[in-house]
Amino acid sequence: MQFFLHRDGRLHVESVPLDAIAARFGTPCYVYSRAALEASFRAFTAALAGREHLVCYALKANSNLAVLGVLARLGAGFDIVSGGELARVIAAGGDPRKVVFSGVGKSAAEIRQAFEADILCFNVESAAELERIERLAAEHGRLAPVSFRVNPDVDPKTHPYISTGLKENKFGVAFEEALPLYRRAAASRSLRVVGVDFHIGSQLTETAPFVAALERILELVDALAREGIALHHLDLGGGLGIRYRDEAPPPVAEYLGALLGRVGTRSLKILLEPGRALVGNAGALLTRVEYLKPGAEHNFAIVDAAMNDLLRPALYDAWHDIVPVAARSGPTRCYDVVGPVCETGDFLGHARDLAVEEGDLLAIMSAGAYGMSMSSNYNTRARAAEVMVDGASVHLVRERESVQSLFALERTVP
Ligand SMILES: *Cc1c(COP(=O)(O)O)cnc(C)c1O
To answer: What is the pTM of this model?
Structure first.
């Protein structure tokens, strides 16, 4: 289903034309489709029907409270990587008892915060972290629920910056270390072993690496069962890719079908941690052309969004489709679409054939994941507004930042 569509020559999100959003809220502006978000969440839960499951949205992909609230109302759990994200889940009305806490550097304060909130599980990433959780749990009279993030040492065949399941990565515990760690946790009076998890990378477009990882994890699950350490849940992580350009990731049902087939009749609740696959194609970044600058080597379309708003092109050389909001009939020209930031790496797209004029609106597509959540104030640029469309309704879900707020916490010295 398409939620961003041209109708009568204007790009719409659901029933709302994007030019109306730009007129009302200005640019740059992130625009999300509630229907798209709900549809992608339901694709996951439908594929898991018939099994005990919990889809824990990885909110680092997009942590706007409106996004969290919509998913929470559909019954989502959440995968967090910081105490800040836990606070967001609670502020958005999410249930902390459906929260799994990932990340290699959980601080003592964050661990205590998670005890207070009574989260579902700590996804433990090292022996040292296990020790810290155990000590704090003992101090606070808690029985801390733990899962180990096990590194299956599988090559996910994605960008090296977003590959996380290889031996050389900082994430998770080595496969060989897992069994002794489980024995230790199972013997502790302050820890309760509840599950196992893995997450091998992001923007994966094939099922095979997930299956390879799962098969290793299932070896471990079975070895644990033989020792009398029965797990309650199996967390398959996130990482399913989306189509940005011409990628063909497997449909959710196919990807999950393959994984659930391997799990077979083992009685394990299935957890998932999708981020990008839920929100990536539910959002676009709306921007306006400030200047056209023809050149001998390149023509530039200079727009009012920049790498501080959407870092993925600069960081990963990632592709985002760039679509004029109002189609023009004139001839196209090849443009580098760039922002105002003082870096050569500040681009949103290279070599795009566009028929555009100064003042035109462009939509940078597939920007719902790792867009706003990775944005910064570089060049003292106020962050974009965020809007969520719901049918014919438009909700401002984050105000554009004021410039004053950017240095409100700073002081000059005498
Ligand atoms: C980032 C992350 C996810 C989500 O990854 P996506 O590729 O966005 O699905 C899930 N689990 C963990 C532990 C992560 O770090």
So the answer is: 0.96
